[in-house]
Amino acid sequence: MPGGNTRSALFYEPFPLAMAKGEGCRLWDAGGHEYLDFIAEFSAGIYGHSHPQIRAAIDAAIDDG
pTM here? Predict the structure, then answer.
């Protein structure tokens, strides 16, 4: 895949951003820089990143195997 992903909007010269963390409307890259996510990651929608209730449901599902 050119640029390492299927969405060309995520590639910036000289290399694509590598996000390490997301919370609400904020993202942090691998270098520790903070960003506001104005495009909602194309799919995070109204819940934002790492919504506590969604995260709890995922954790519970993983814990149950």
Answer: 0.52
